[in-house]
Amino acid sequence: MRNLIKRNLNGKIIIPLFLLAGIIYTIMMTITIPKVMRYSGGMKILDMMPTGYNGAYVNSLLNTLGDEGRNAYLCNQIPLDMIYPLLFGISLCLILAYILNKLGKLEGYLYYICLLPLFAAIFDYCENIGVIAMLNSYPDNSNILAKTTNVFSVLKSSFTTINFIILITLFVVLGIRKLFLKDKFHK
Question: pTM for the full model?
Answer without folding.
Answer: 0.91
